[in-house]
Design a protein that fits this description.
The complex is a heterodimer of chains A (325) and B (275).
Chain A (H helix, E strand, L loop, with lengths): L1 H31 L24 H21 L2 H27 L3 E2 L2 E2 H19 L5 H8 L2 H6 L4 H19 L2 H10 L10 H25 L1 H4 L3 H14 L11 H10 L7 H7 L5 H32 L6
Antiparallel strand pairs in A: 1-2
Chain B lengths: L5 H6 L1 H17 L1 H28 L8 H21 L6 H7 L2 H6 L4 H8 L6 H17 L6 H31 L12 H7 L8 H10 L7 H8 L15 H22 L6
Helix pairs in contact in B: 2-7, 3-4, 3-8, 4-8, 4-9, 5-9, 9-13
The chains are: A mainly alpha (325), B mainly alpha (275).
């Protein structure tokens, strides 16, 4: 946790050192572009800083986003031991889940549309994807809310949701290389994996993973934001972790359930969009139109969840009372 | 470690009680979050059982075992695990203490390090899970057609406790890794949660070397699978004799002895934090 703060301060600190505090504020406001309005208006009081530069708001926003993305990526590059340890665990669980599900499918050769190689791909890519999409408990924001450190997030000229999203996509980028590929390699060595037949499956999978990661961050942001009201968000955070892993299809593919239940879960909750959709897209379980439709559904959920997160953040800012001096 | 005589240990009991009571109070002070936490941690056990039900739902038998037999295995495994997770599971947080150097504070107090650590983080929220897992096991014992005799009654009572001791030892062992490898992160989960998942299914589904390492090498086969066979009076398709089911307390004892030894070595190895 300290490392992220360090990275962010480092990032902003560099501007500060070069140009002085006034320069930093000017520059950060410039870079925040269209987002600057969000940080004002705590309870209607106007703390807005005059806009100094109207030029190139889009490009500057993109540069800020890119810098935060990079800091998220670099942060996880430094956790080398944890990456190796986590990968080891994923591989052990890959074997466990794969053998269990293969035993289930052995009776009839296939189960709920998954043949043996599709099940193996589902499990091994799933073990890697868990860390890209990230369904584990994540309490960075709620810890900062509880300690009051979140105030410094609000002082920054970048919307908290945007800065967390950028850093999280950086983390996901790191995981896509260092957490997804090793289990995939282990699975390919010990099991027969499924090779996608359609040319667009892999690109569609990448897009699907991106939507899944955004939805996951928005959900994690939401449960963490309950700390603005509850002070201690451990319960909601754990609830999300279990709902996400169970209804996301980590324990077993959701299609093992009765069809009406699967469809209901898929449409009415965002959880299948987190893991099940990217995995089913990759193993081409459905005809092409359904495959694409699932990704569109995912995109819908990502937009809805981000919108809700933004709304909750606005409400929370009205409520927040900074503690301490 | 100074030699502490037995009566002084008894004198320490109020201190331990105060630590535990503090945990209960702190958990209850965030009431809404605590209730959600309580429900969530029950869900973890419910999901394990539900997964077994769903998997048996799509196929009649798994490796020749029927649904009630499968529930008995998962019941035994989760019952042992739930107890261990409640009592010892939070030793997982050792890595945080080692990384931040907070373990120093534990060592300078005139109490044993391990009980302190466990009580400092006593997970009150996990208490309900023990009850649920017990319920599942009880249901499984009733649903299965078991020819009860005194040995089997004893086995049914002892197995969850042996399982708890075994998983407790695994929890301590994997946490101890942090003394040598500070950022060991999730590695321990491969053996704690992974061990629970492994033991929750009939072990003939795992092939050759994987089964050899986990079931017999590390002993996870004796947590639930072998005792379940002995309770059901089924011969082991893998060829172990029927008395293997009664070995789980012995396996647990070996695990506890190893864990205690490694823990001692680990504490001596601890050098606090440098930064």
């Amino acid at each position: 946790m300290a490392t992220l703060r360090h990275d962010v301060f480092h990032l902003f600190g560099k501007c500060g050192a070069a140009e002085g505090v006034a320069g930093m504020v000017t520059r950060l406001y410039k870079t925040s572009g269209a987002l600057r309005k969000e940080i004002n208006g705590v309870d209607g009081s106007n703390a807005s800083v005059p806009v100094i530069s109207h030029g190139r708001p889009f490009r500057d926003t993109l540069a800020t986003f890119g810098a935060l993305w990079g800091s998220g990526f670099r942060r996880f590059m430094t956790y080398r031991q944890a990456t190796i340890a986590g990968t080891f665990t994923n591989i052990v669980f890959g074997f466990l889940r794969c053998y269990v599900l293969l035993a289930v499918s052995k009776q009839s050769g296939q189960v709920a549309g998954y043949s043996g190689d599709k099940i193996a791909t589902y499990v091994w890519i799933g073990q890697g994807l868990l860390n890209v999409v990230y369904l584990w408990s994540w309490t960075e924001l709620s810890d900062r809310i509880r300690t009051g450190e979140v105030v410094s997030d609000l002082l920054r000229p970048v919307h908290p949701l945007v800065s967390y999203l950028a850093a999280d996509l950086g983390r996901a980028g790191h995981a896509a290389i260092f957490r997804l590929l090793p289990p995939l390699a282990a699975g390919a060595i010990f099991f027969d994996l499924y090779e996608p037949q359609r040319w667009f499956t892999i690109p569609l999978f990448v897009v699907s993973v991106l939507f899944a990661t955004v939805s996951s961050l928005a959900l994690r942001f939401l449960v963490n934001a309950t700390a603005y009201w509850l002070h201690d968000a451990r319960g909601p955070v754990a609830l999300l972790m279990f709902a996400g892993t169970m209804l996301g299809g980590v324990y077993f593919p959701l299609r093992f359930l009765p069809e009406w239940l699967t469809v209901t879960l898929w449409v009415a909750t965002p959880f299948p969009s987190l893991m099940q959709t990217p995995l089913d897209v990759l193993v081409e379980l459905d005809p092409a139109p359904v495959q694409g439709g699932l990704v569109v559904l995912q995109a819908g959920w990502a937009v809805v969840l981000l919108t809700i997160s933004g709304y909750v953040q606005r409400r929370a800012e009205r409520r927040l009372v900074a503690q301490g001096g | 470690m100074p030699s502490v005589v037995w009566w002084r240990k008894v004198g320490n009991l109020p201190a331990y009680r105060a630590l535990a009571a503090g945990q209960v109070r702190s958990a209850l002070s965030y009431r809404a979050s605590f209730v959600v936490d309580l429900v969530t941690s029950v869900m973890a056990t419910v999901f394990d059982v539900l997964t077994v039900l769903v998997l048996f739902g799509v196929t009649r038998t798994i490796a020749g075992f029927t649904l009630p037999e499968g529930v008995l295995i998962v019941g035994l495994a989760s019952c042992g695990f739930a107890w261990a997770d409640f009592a010892v599971g939070n030793v997982e947080r050792l890595k945080t203490y080692v990384r931040t150097g907070a373990f120093d504070a534990v060592l300078v107090r005139p109490l044993a390090a391990l009980p302190q650590l466990l009580l400092m983080d006593l997970p009150v929220r996990k208490a309900l899970r023990v009850v649920v897992a017990g319920g599942v096991l009880l249901a499984a014992l009733l649903v299965n057609d078991i020819a009860w005799n005194p040995q089997r009654v004893l086995l049914a009572v002892l197995t969850p406790f042996a399982g708890a001791a075994f998983y407790g030892a695994i929890f301590v062992l994997s946490a101890t890794l942090a003394f040598w490898w500070v950022d060991s992160g999730e590695m321990g989960s491969a053996f704690t949660y992974g061990g629970r998942d492994f033991a929750s299914y009939p072990i003939p589904i795992y092939p050759g070397w994987f089964r050899g390492v986990f079931a017999y090498g590390m002993g996870f086969g004796f947590v639930a699978y072998q005792p379940a066979l002995a309770l059901l009076g089924r011969p082991d398709p893998l060829g172990l004799p029927s008395w293997a089911g009664y070995c789980s307390p012995l396996v647990a004892l070996v695990a506890v002895v190893i864990a205690a030894a490694v823990w001692r070595v680990g504490v001596r190895h601890y050098r606090s934090t440098g930064s």
